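Quick illustration, no need to memorize.
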Amino acid sequence: MRLLVDIGNTRIKLAVFNNNKILRVFSESMLSKSLVYNLMNKYPKINLVFSLSSNKNVELNRNHFDKFNLKFIEFNSNKYASIFSSYEGGLGDDRMALSIGALSMYSQNTLIIDLGTCVTYDLVLNGIYKGGQISPGLQSRLESLKQTTSSLPLLNFDIPEDFIGTSTEKCIISGVYYGLLSEIELMIKRYTSANQLTVVLTGGDSQYFKKNIKNVIFDDNLLMKGLNCILNETI
């Protein structure tokens, strides 16, 4: 049994796997010793921890696991250099893992859209990573409106009740939501006009778009499944 850990920009995601079966996935603001103890007491057969850090300023604190006899493995992108060789600069480990997961589970020709703090678009063609885009996520857009204006409030996101906003707050929520929805729809149209692709939406905010975006695959756990596929090839 294994524990997979993804340290993101705002949340830490954990998944317990038994071979290829997900037993539990959850998200936390931080990883604490009490959380680790509760988790290990519930799943005492965990003997391996596989971690990836999307946040370069934060690493997995192994001291939280010091009372348990565990093997630790960190994601190493060197093994997949040929897949990502055409990308200039450093590609985030999370985007690599998502692309590898999509390759392993869905198609050699895939568009992966990850909706989180940032929205990332990643194109894989014939098993080779081609590139994509990065734009602000829902909450990042709300925070940007507050930071760049003197009168607009900072709001937490919720699905808008109506398309037309009838107050400042409702206008902000509607503008942010439908602005991102229109972006995603246009991006999908642009990508699929040139290539026949499997489109996969994932990430914490993908839940808000399930009713409005059609003919795509929603996979909330693609990153964790991708990490598990990578781990299967590593050990």
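DSSP finds five helices and ten strands in the chain.
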